[in-house]
Every structure is written in structure tokens, then in C-alpha cells.
């Protein structure tokens, strides 16, 4: 199937694979000829055959998201052959743990502050100063990834 | 190269590919025969040939990490064919943004609290109650990922 932006051009996948881009080509809607790198990356990391199989197993309305996530993973693996996008997961996990720790500490400060104020200012206390509307339930670890390079 | 735990058994990759596991097999140290799923997953998503190429381009001391990250990505893609482990990145990004927002709000509460206390309790003020040792610099966005399924 020819791309809508280049009606006579084969898609980037068919051009790369040097084959005819037929009507109903599974790659064509997601690999336009003007972005040859997207297919080259995905092909290098996953292989055209694996991508084709994957796309055929996914509902058409989800294929664009699937191709974009494959392209993201492929680019990450080319930039970092050892960790790929798992490196990003590890960094984000550490960031979540650090932020949760900071939040716990800040909430503890707020409770202590509030408690001190209640002790010192008993007559003025509103009675709800221990309530922190921004306090979170202990939810870190909700996304716990085993791999931690 | 035969695995140390099963000296006569071929590695999981050679067993899967039905080939002889020779001395110096690039897969053998990372795909022991007792874990056939690890290779099956990686082969299904990346292809044995791509994995072999990747391993040969990486320094030996980094190959175990590379295989483990590939196995992690492969398992994630098999569980979620549309987003794979990019889905985890998206969830973690949202978690980081939410935590940073909560932390900013809690820090603002603490500053307001401290300011109120200073106003009410001027004679008792220690003079440093505006200092929050847990306040963070505005660092979210340090890991900003473009893909957000």
C-alpha cells in the first residue's frame, strides 16, 4: 500500500527490504517513506519478520502504538546496547523511591511542626492541624521492577 | 560450551535451536539449560541472530547485563504486545510527576505553616523555621520521555 503522503513511493519497510509495497502491506501505515530510520532501527533490533508477526497478532487500532513502542525500544537499545530502555526503568524507579522518601520526610516534618504548634498554641488550635491534605498513602513499591542494573 | 551445572547438557539456546553447543558458544554462559523459557522469550522477540550479533558487539563483562535486560524486555513484550516495557516507563513517569507534585504541595504547606507560626509566635520563633531540610530543587523533568502511551 503506497503512503498517502507519497502516493507512488513504497513504504520505508518495503524500500529497505527491496520488495514491492503491495496493497494491504502490514508495515505501510506505520513506516512512511519519509522516515527510513524508524524501520531501519526496528529491523536491526527486532527483525522485520518478528515485527510483522507481532503486528498481525495485534488489533489494527493498536498497531500504531505497538510500532511506536517498538521504535522507542529499538532506539534505546541502539543508544545503550547493554541496558536499552531497561536503563530508563531503573533510573525512574530510583527517582520514585527518592521522591517517596523525600515526601515521607516532609510529611513527618509537617506533622512534627503541627504537633509543636498545637502544644505551644493550644488555645488557638483549630483541632485539624495534623491533617495534611497532601499526605499520600504508602504506595511506593506499587511498581516494583526486579531488574535493577 | 557445556553449562557448569549440567556439564554434558547443551545450553538452552543450542537446545532450542537444535544445534551442537560448541566450546565458546556465545549464548552458553547466559542461557543455562535449566531455564529454557529465558532463551525462548528472547528468541521470539529479538531473534537468535540479532541477540548473537548484539552479544558479539558488547564487552564480555557486560554481556550478562545485556542478556538480562533483553530477557526483561522480551518478557514485558510477551505480556503486553502493544506497549511492552515502554508501558512501565509511562507508568513510572506518571508516578514521578505525581510524587513531585505532592512534594511541591507538601513543601508549600510547610512553608505556609512555618510562616503562620512565625506570625503568631514571633517571640518564640527560632528564626529558621522556614528552612525545610527535605525541600528538593525543582528536578522533575530530568528524565523526560517522549513516548507516553
UniProtKB/TrEMBL annotation, chains A, B:
Ranges where the LOB domain occurs: 9-110
PROSITE patterns assigned: LOB
GO MF annotation: an example: DNA-binding transcription activator activity
Stretches assigned to coiled coil: none
GO terms for cellular component: nucleus
GO biological process, one term: regulation of DNA-templated transcription
Pfam families listed in its UniProt record: LOB
Domain of life: Eukaryota
Homology family: Belongs to the LOB domain-containing protein family.
Name of the protein described by the UniProt record: Putative LOB domain-containing protein
Species this protein is from: Helianthus annuus
